[in-house]
Amino acid sequence: EAGVAQSPRYKIIEKRQSVAFWCNPISGHATLYWYQQILGQGPKLLIQFQNNGVVDDSQLPKDRFSAERLKGVDSTLKIQPAKLEDSAVYLCASSLAHGGPGGNTIYFGEGSWLTVV
Amino acid sequence: DAKTTQPPSMDCAEGRAANLPCNHSTISGNEYVYWYRQIHSQGPQYIIHGLKNNETNEMASLIITEDRKSSTLILPHATLRDTAVYYCIVRDDSGGSYIPTFGRGTSLIVHP
Question: What proportion of chain B, given as a percentage, has pLDDT over 70?
């Protein structure tokens, strides 16, 4: 079974530039997550989708971050304009939507490493 | 905020058992305990989960106290490749919306 795919793997941009990250979840997974992980910290949830609807985006800095999942499959996370403090790993993850034991196991991609200089 | 607390770091000798504790004193009846680990430069990887019974799989064992306020992840024979950050989270698997929240985890170093 293919895992969660993310690209690009690494990106270096200057502050005030824009960047976009792409994610393809595991086939059949209705729930998709974007996490931000700053060095030395645990992953912090930015946004959670259920199919193409947003479940929670309370920690997404909406003045500069946006995310979409138009067809309920792939997702894109965009940062515009980037700040130095946005340097982090951006992790995409997915899970099955149904409840029950193990139904909500989260599977992560390898992450997209962003450095803002 | 994460609903779990874990020691920031631990170390273990190769070949010995690694016992990683997690405190989740405010856990509710519908919440499962999940463990993940993150090896350097990779995304977190699912290890095991449980509700109230002890669980074992090919990677680890999970021991949950009777009052469910704490749990221990056991790696029975730790290897150097088990060096990673281990995260304990709780989440409701009843099917409703739930926000999975990670803390800082425990950095486990397995030494020769």
Answer: 91
